[in-house]
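cache lookup: miss for this entity combination. No prior model stored, computing from scratch. Input as submitted by user K.M.:
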Amino acid sequence: MNQFKMKDVFKRNIMTIALFAVYVLFVVLALVIRGTNMLDPSVVTSLIEQNAYVFILGTGMLMCMLTGGNIDLSVGSFVCFAGATVGLFSVENDLLNKWFGVWEKQMVDGQLKDVLVTPASPWSTPVVLLVALAIGLAYGALLGWLIAYVRIPPWIATLAGFLSFRGLGTQVLSTASTTNAISNLPGSLTNIFSGTLFPTPWGQLNIPCLILGILVSAAIAFLNIRTRSTKIKKGYQADPFWFVILKSVIEVAVVMFFTIEFALNGGIPVVVLWIGAILIIYGIITEKTTIGRHFMTIGGNAETARLSGINNKLVMFCAYLNMAILTVIASLIVTSRTGAANSFAGQEYELDAIAACIVGGVSAYGGSGTIIGMVVGATLIGVINQGLSLVGVDQDWIKIVKGLVLLAAVVFEIMSKNANKKAKDKKPKVKKAKKAKKAKKEQKLAVN
Amino acid sequence: MAKVLLEMKSITKTFPGVKALDNVNLKVEEGEIHALVGENGAGKSTLMNVLSGIYPIGTYEGDIIYNGEVCKFHNIKDSEKKGIVIIHQELALIPYMTIGENMFLGNEQGNKWCIDWNKTYAEADKYLEMVGLSDSSKTLIKDIGTGKQQLVEIAKALAKHAKLLILDEPTSSLNETDSRALLDLMKKLKAEGMTMIIISHKLNEVSYVADKITVVRDGSTIETLDAKTDDISETRIIKGMVGREITDRFPKRHDVPIGDVMMEVDNWTVYHPEFAERKVCNDVSINVRAGEVVGIYGLMGAGRTELAMSIFGRSYGIGISGDLKLRGKSVVLKSPKQAIEAGLAYVTEDRKGNGLVLSNSILRNTTLANLSGVSSGTFIDQDKEIEVAQEYVDRLKTKTPSVDQLVGNLSGGNQQKVLLAKWMFADPDVLILDEPTRGIDVGAKYEIYCIINDLAKAGKSVVMISSELPEVIGMSDRIYIMNQAKIVGEMKASDATQENIMEVIVKQGSETTASLAGEAEIKTDYKAEAGAGEEVSVAEEGSETAENTEEGSEV
């Protein structure tokens, strides 16, 4: 039986510890160099809000990567296109008027011209949301079909999406508006994906937020303890009690940290609820369900999976269908945050999502990776991003640092794997012992 | 007496736990065709790998004396420099390159930086003429047949200025006409002074072409027959190949009543997925009863794996026709999933390639084929999963510190146990075991045999595919003999001897090759060609990691 070792716990959570360390480092640096407080509620909230899309796209990307290191390059462009579609139907604009407005031939300055008599009325928010979802389903199904059943390599199929959706999105926006953007999205839409729940003025402690935080903390502690007690009851090996308490304390501390920060900043950001819900759902899917196991198995060995009765094609199809739906949600969040659909929205989002997965320890070859890992990876990149800009580092240098961090994460992962293998080999020790013996013999001979 | 070109002196090659070659001696005279024969896994390929430097100096004991000097090969390049060139069984040609490009791959003509294409094609044509191939050297490989491709391989070897040519099963993918042409080419090359070593399972060809025949069995050279002085009939060679006693290496199975027919396959025909005109199973009919162990014996490439996989939810092959009956009822199984649900299990021969997920734990591999057995709805009961995995670890005596151990860290024998556990947990009625003891050590083999007996005792039907004759005879109740995509014989295990099984194969082999001349012969495919080399490498890794696991348990 495996014995509980603190060393293993550290090893498993090395990235989380790194995240803590980096965060503390930046807090100190920002304070010392610039006198900026990174722990300021607004700064913390913006860290989450700015990176919301990475968490959501990272989740979808994780599911794709689990199936064998497959990626989706089209998510950034699809964010733009989905946003453009939402904007197109929810705000009055030229394109909408052209399609649905009432036009009449009238004499203007002596010439017969089509003149808009009644502008088209924007669609209601539920309808717009349904349209957005339908677009996501359609694209996801098409992509899934191409990749799983027509067997087009994922990166090629999604590269096509990367190019065409950027073009399509820009085309829609430039036709709809002279500024290449549709702004002033209705509050009924944006409030679903952004803003705060039960808002209070800045600096005043928000009570609903506090209550939610305390409830979540209690739930975490309860689940941790209950898991342990069921294990003991059924006679399985469980972690020591003190460790469960320590783990709960740390987790509750993190939750309460964010709770207080959010509470001081006016309330629960709506986007946090979205992120939380998606992360929990997908965490359960990947860890505890058969379908999640199927994703992992295909990435581990597709042929084995097939011969074990898993429908590889269906799983691949689901991975890309799922990615497209999550992309629509990410698009709504991004669009709602700015209240406008832009032609440059979503640029390089696909790469952010992939980077989050890779830094978070998701195998680039598939078969292993966790939601928690991806979250840690995404947050680490987010913290580095924010920290460096607060310290006053140039954007170009931030990119360089991010690239290096990505590389370092992968190198570290591979090296630690190799180190594990070596640690298992006791042979080197034996060799050393032999060498020592030899050396002694030689010495003796020399003496003789 | 001709000059001795090559002498391999007391070669011993040990992989941890397995002695692949034990004190092997081989003498090849200049200008002769020397045949190496032996069963699968006897050590022929390992010996040739030692000779060609694939296993470098230091990894084996003994001397290679070539042309009067002791050779120390560190890699293939070293041996090729001396003129020893090996042509592997699997053709190593790139389909979308021309003959000329392929011939000089890694041996490019021209100066250091720039390939001289004119010289390349001129040289290529020269060597093609030598092997009697009239196609232009600018033809793409994919446009010529396998027979011609084999000739290109030989031309390629000649272009490396080969003095000693090693051909590993050169005719395994050729039809009769092409085979004959190849053998005649070998004779022609011999007349021109080339020395050749041929490894072959086709004994009629060996008798036809060889000057000397060395029989390898269980990692040792048994005897060398001289065509001039000794009897080299096929029966005589077989005697040398299999002359081994079946001892009590197989546990006895007591009092297992044999029940009704559980699975019946009738007129089963399967075509190759890529070469659609090639039959990999030809009108095969077999059946297996409850509580019975049925052996399917055949040499590599006989179509055994193809048969098994096509039965298991059509997971291999195209154009499958024939009837499959389970418990007397006709069923159509279109996917592995349906096959599993119908009570079939296919335990693959290639446990690393398509049996296990090496990067996953024992736990996850055990429940893989029957996840619903440990879950309610879509949710996996992870505690129950641990319980199940632990139960099978205990039952099959899998050596591991815990069920969380990654399968990739286990030895071959223990991996095989996990693979069996996976399919036993799926609770099938019929288990098709494909080479269940490939690449595992003797102790583990015995344990696997015990498991097979237990399965039969529990009323399961077991189909055991094997290319080890003693194993088939020792373990089965009934034996089917398969050769060249057909079932060529069926006998009770009590009537079977190694000699009469081999005779059935040889007899049928010469009949069909005569009647099928011109028709494409069965190409061995689907990784069945792993050969001794890989077998041993499995064992090698296996025992290394076995040590690790043992250490783990100490900790």
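stored under new cache key. The first helix of chain B runs from residue 44 to 51.
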